[in-house]
Structure formats: structure tokens, C-alpha cells
Amino acid sequence: MNNVVWLPETVQDGVIIASEKQRENPLIAKLKEVRVEFLADLGVDFVVSRSTGVSICSLRYLRMSTMRYIQERMELSRPHYRVCICLVHVDCEAEDDVLLELNRLCFYLDHALFLTWSLEEMANVLSSFKIYEKKRAEDYLQPYRVKQLSYMERAQAFLCALKPLTTRDADILLQRFGSIRNILNANKTMLMTCHGIGQTKADAIVAAAGNPFFQDVDDDEDDDDHDDQTKITLQLNRQLG
Q1: CATH no. of 15-139
Q2: pLDDT tens, 60-117?
């Protein structure tokens, strides 16, 4: 192992360094968002930055061989990179004992474990690490952030789940009563004093207010088994998450 290269002299922007052994790997053809350069005697399969090394393997190979193979590779590469990744192609039926042992190895040898089910997915993981190499953690999370709704927005969504109430109806009710609690506590006559709230809409609100709210709702349960009031309650629970 004396001739092994762990850290290339330079890792350019948009370039992933691959071991020469990976040249014939069909995965290389899937790496379309980055450029790949090959280096002989590279200690890991891929280097995506001077601090990140990636070892790849297939689950089929792990099932046929022993975990000692991947364990030795992890032990050798760990001292050379701040971030070590074990990228696995699940190309056969997954067995719990194999995955549990692999997860245990990654935990104790400080490797991040990624399971992928296609070469395209493997390429996407590698490309993403390169593309986001110099970005902040917030940039990774941005596409997945859930918008934080204000109280009025949540209250409006709550009321609009009661058909046939509209957004305008919700605004008028909230302006008149001030809160969801006050709206649900209002009787039918009080509700109908609001502009645009007729008997049908008032009945929908009263029906929902008179039905208990359940903390746990089985989303798979067939709504046909419930009466109209319970259907409204189920819809509200789903709307509010």
C-alpha cells in the first residue's frame, strides 16, 4: 500500500477524481453533471473534494463475499478524509442481517452510509456532493424547508377545509370572531350574521364544531364508513397535519 494516493494534489471545481479501476464501471457514464478524471493507485473509489472520499460497493457483492472486504477499505481510508462515505448499490434483494452489519461498520468506522437502488441514483449522490461542495448547510436544506405559516394562514386553511367555505368566507369569519375557537363556539344564528354565510355554510361549521377531534386518524380508513360530520372532522385533521 506504499504507492497508494489518498489526496490528489488538486481537485478542481466540477471534477470528481476516480480510481483507474472504475474506468469501465457503467456508473461513470451516468455522471453527466460533473467531469471525471482518473488517477492510478487512488486509495478510494472516488474523491469529490480534498476532504471527502467515497468507497462504493454492491449489495450483491457483499452478500457473496465477507464484510471484511469493506471493513478493511474503511479502516484504511478513514484517517485521510474529514468526510468518508460508503455508497452502496442495492442490486439484489436486501437482507436485514447484511444491512445491519454494514450499518454497524459505518457507525463504528465513522462513515456516512448511502443506499441507492440504481446507477442513476448513485451518480446523483456523487454529483450532489460535488455540486454542493462549497455551499453552506442551509443550501442543502432550502429545497426541503416547509413554509412556516402564520396563525391567520393556518386558521384560513382550517376553515377552507369545510366545504363550501371559501377564502373570503374564512377572512370574514376571522375578522368577526377573532379566532377559530370563537367561530366554533358561535351558534348558527351568530354565524349567519356574517356577510356571505348562509344556512349551508353555517350548518357545515356547526356540524364540525359538534364533532370531537381525534389526535390519531387512520388515513387508510375508508371514509364511506363515516357519517357526514365525521368526514368533515377527518378532513380537518388531515388538513392540519
Answers
A1: 3.40.50.10130
A2: 888 887 788 888 888 988 888 888 999 999 888 877 888 888 899 999 999 999 999 9
